[in-house]
Amino acid sequence: MKSAESHFQFVTASYLTRIGDQKATTLAELGEGLKDSSDASVFYHTFQTLGRHHFLTEGFSNDFAQWVLASCNRAELAEQLASLDIRDYLSLAELRTDLHRIVTEYCATYPAYAGQVAFEPFYFCDAIEVAVPLGVEARTLEEFRRGLERLSHAAFHYHFVASRLRLHLRTNDFSLWLETSLGLSALAQRVNRIDIYTNTLESARVKLAALVDEEAAR
Amino acid sequence: MSTTMPIPRLIHLDDYISVLGEPEVAELRALAARLHGRTVQMVNSTAVGGGVAEILNRLVPILQELGLAIRWDVIRGGSDFFEITKAFHNALHGGSYDMPPESFDVFLGYNEQNLGRLQMEGEFTVIHDPQPVALIKARADRWGHWIWRCHIDLSRPNPTVWKFLEPWVDRYDGTIFSSPEFSRQLSIPQYLFYPCIDPLAEKNRELEPEFVRAVLERFQIDPGRPILTQISRFDRLKDPVGVVRAYRLVKRYFDCQLVLAGGGASDDPEGEAVLAEVREVAQGDTDIHILNLPPWSATEINALQRGSTIVIQKSLREGFGLTVTEALWKRKPVVASAVGGIPAQVIHKHTGMLAHSVEGAAYQIRFLLSNPAIATKLAEQGHEHVREHFLITSNAKRYLTLFLHLAGSF
Fold first, then answer.
1. Torsion angle (degrees, nearest 10) of CA A72, A73, A79, A81
2. Domain of B165?
3. ipTM for the complex?
4. Which of A109, A200, B23, B162 is the most buried (most CB within 10 A)?
5. Residues 170-209, chain B: which have Cβ within 8 Å of A?
6. Is the CB of B356 inside 8 Å of chain A's CB atoms?
7. Are residues B244 and B312 in the same domain?
8. Directed axis angle between helix A173-180 and helix A185-192, to 10°?
């Protein structure tokens, strides 16, 4: 069994939600709010909400899309916002730009809807991340596999989803370590293809473990 | 004057593994490891009764078991103090404030007396609700982090009472609210901590199907036909008459029953009037079961929720709506109004159905009765939503995260 020079340290992250000063009661206000929103707020309503609602595998993408659908009843705009895939973004600024563009373009096309008051306001919040080591490390594929068994949903989300923003790469902590430390490029790619929108965090973890088992059995 | 509460210990952290799984409990321990031995002080105004005491009775032992040096103090006051704080409570919910101006001095006097007797020495001090808010005065020559945990809806406070309280609140390092909707614009950070339920408490623990059936039969409810249930006080804001109207619209298509179960009518004149109105509206329909239950009916409520086909919460105004949380936890499809904290729990078409009218509620109930597979899926996702966000363990995790953030210990 190959031993990596650099170990993989399993970490968990917990998020403290801070209520912001901004709220939106119309689509136009949502557009304004998005323009001024912080990175921490965009993270909270996109990356982090996907983790918070991982058990919803049909049609839940981010808080903006859900609010537009449930509180404004604008399915077309909701669909556009929901179709943004956070895996395409390496910075929150880029994601904010696209969210803002989609909402403002919709408001310009349908000005009558822009000022319609929603059933419920949208409250901009943000997340403060607190990350701590779980006290579990891996140097071999076998140890890595055992570590996966001990991951909470938050820890899995931290390594598999939120990691893109830390790494500024289109990959995740697991794939990066498997490739750079164990030289398992093919496995790293297969892991990176696990779909976080159609899996729960739990089912994604199970798929990852199965891929590692396949590799170990070769 | 004040009382330091003995820390209850009936349930241990490991008991939650059966509910959460081992990794989630290990995560709590990992977060707490960096806070080992750090001092925390919780202060509120009652040891028993009410949601805050219920939460602290579970939260404090969990945090202690996780290694924090925690104490829980309850302030004391005379009947005049509690009359004033009751008036504060109503006024902060938007009501009028009819107490004399000197009531503010009486309030501060009792806070001062408690201050003289309490040992305020926690590194992290959490003051719950307005009653002990002025204890922040102790901070003048003390260290540590002070947080005000507001469990009530402050969105539309009476200006006189808020003008008095706001300068005290501003002296804290931060506030905690139960919903963004309940918060106010303040100069200090506002954190979001959802209220929570204890899955191992009498009201929520698993029950044998035979017991559930026996409870239904005791109340002459037919377990063989669909049961629509709303659990709530007999209060106009819970719209029980609207629930009866929605049930009647459903009844045209489904041979269902309606259960309206709650308490509060015996010691509340308005509750009695509402109960009489509901009985009047329901008269002659033997499929409507109106149950005015005593306060010690947690197991019966648990059984009624578990025996229901659909749980309704058609409130006109709502706090967080913990009866919705309880129903979701029990894997029940929920149809509820989009008010207060309910939309945070019922994500429309994902964890339940939201409605904005009697007709809308009736339509969603009919849809779920016609599509049991969808109802089951919503209920399962609702259960997961509660497991992730609205259990006492999630609350413990939020406090650990807050303390780590305040202390910069990560």
1. 0
2. 3-196+391-407
3. 0.91
4. B23
5. 177, 180-181, 183, 185, 189-192
6. yes
7. yes
8. 170
